[in-house]
Design a protein that fits this description.
The chain is α/β, with parallel strands linked by helices. The chain has a five-stranded parallel β-sheet with strand order 2-1-3-4-5, sandwiched between helices. Strand 4, helix 5 and strand 5 form a beta-alpha-beta unit. The chain is globular, with a radius of gyration of 16 Å.
């Protein structure tokens, strides 16, 4: 008695509930990174991850994106050099803030905060890809997984 069963121990390595996640990014800056984040979240056991590659052709994509954001607990924003030039990304940020999502910005290497950075993003603790290397991206993703309650050991 008193020993943790393997099932109980496994519960400690990830959040109790599958967390709905919306990954926001600008295609020209961050497509590959978005797919990597999605793959790592799925590998960690979370299958409630939305990346806009899943939109139905011919569907009402704007309303679908808005609904997906509002349903999400986490709004992961991948910040590249032109992310804040996108009117649609800025709209997604506003929807996430209005919906009460936990907004987690992940800044790609060498991308500075500047006058284009929305205040709602400036107010958040960031995760930063320190170097444009596999290790740099891996470290940032591990920080994200830890922030979301996944064990990364």
């Amino acid at each position: 008695a008193g020993l943790l069963t393997r099932e109980a121990f496994n519960l400690l390595s990830k959040p109790v509930d599958e967390l709905k996640v919306f990954i926001s990014y600008r295609r020209q800056d961050s497509t590959a990174f978005a797919l990597l984040v999605e793959a790592r979240l799925r590998l960690a056991g979370n299958h409630a991850v939305f990346v806009d590659k899943l939109l139905e052709v011919g569907g009402e994509w704007r309303s679908e994106l808005e609904n997906r954001i509002r349903e999400s607990k986490y709004f992961i924003l991948l910040v590249g050099s032109t992310t804040f030039d996108s009117e649609w990304v800025r709209r997604e940020i506003d929807i996430a803030a209005e919906a009460g999502c936990i907004i987690v910005p992940i800044w790609q290497a060498d991308v500075p905060r500047d006058e284009r950075t929305p205040e709602v993003i400036n107010a958040r603790q960031e995760i930063r890809v320190e170097r444009e290397t596999a290790e740099g991206y891996e470290t940032a993703i591990l920080k994200l997984l830890n922030r979301m309650g996944y064990a990364t050991y």
